[in-house]
Amino acid sequence: MVTRILIADDQEGIRVAFRLILDAQPDMTVVAEAADGRTAIDTAKTIKPDVVLTDIRMPGADGIEVTRALAGTGVHVVVLTTFGLDEYVHAALRYGAAGFILKRSGPTLLIEAVRAAMSGDVLVSPQLTVRLLRRHERPRETSGVVLTEREDEIVTLVARGRTNAEIAAEIFLSPGTVKNHIAAIQRKTGARNRVAIAAWAWATGRAEP
């Protein structure tokens, strides 16, 4: 299956560079571009791409608005930025962004972010992971949560940055079973995504930075 991608960035050079990288992958194709956030939202709702790559700062609507507007539509949103971690990143993750990467991270991470989003993972630029987890807002109900032994094991592995496939291989489960366990963990902890699960694990002493 080919992943259909929309690129939203107000700089044409960035859009062209990303299109060249992504279209070169056998399992990806760029189906649309947008130079502002409002166009990105309208286009995404019309053509329903699999993934939207959106800059955090754009005219019309920023990356946060794009993420919020597309929440629950089935479109995965990966937020891109030239800048480091700031309040915009936290907001994007709260609204369910499927990733946050620095534009300078390179083509490999860009490609990995798209594939991670499609597999239900959240990818964050390695340079920012520790800083992000330490500052990320704690999910609700950090106390009194009862996890099964298997769920507790998976929480620890998520906090260590393992993907679903890596967790499955390490504890001898299918990726689908791991995904189901993570969904149960999110319900119990109130975490919206994998980053929030890791933050909860840190906050409750289940894992160390």
Please outline the helices and strands:
Layout: E1 3-8, H1 12-23, E2 28-34, H2 37-47, E3 51-55, H3 63-70, E4 76-81, H4 87-94, E5 99-102, H5 107-118, E6 123-124, H6 126-135, H7 149-159, H8 164-171, H9 175-189, H10 194-203
Parallel strand pairs: 1-2, 1-3, 3-4, 4-5, 5-6
Helix pairs in contact: 2-3, 3-4, 7-9, 7-10, 8-9
Radius of gyration: 17 Å
SSE run: EHEHEHEHEHEHHHHH
The number of helical segments is 10
Principal-axes shape call: globular
Distance between the termini: 36 Å
Count of individual beta strands = 6
The share of residues in extended strands comes to 5-15%
Are there runs of 5+ residues with pLDDT below 50, and where?
137-142
Summarize the structure.
The protein is of the alpha/beta class and 209 residues long. It has helices spanning 12-23, 37-47, 63-70, 87-94, 107-118, 126-135, 149-159, 164-171, 175-189, 194-203, and strands at residues 3-8, 28-34, 51-55, 76-81, 99-102, 123-124.
Description of the structure:
This protein has 209 residues and is α/β, with parallel strands linked by helices. It contains ten helices and six strands, in the order βαβαβαβαβαβααααα. It has a six-stranded parallel β-sheet with strand order 2-1-3-4-5-6, with helices on both faces. α3 (63-70) runs parallel beside α4 (87-94), α7 packs across α9 (175-189) and α7 (149-159) crosses α10. The longest helix is centred in the C-terminal third of the chain and has 15 residues, at 175-189. The protein is globular and about 50 Å long.
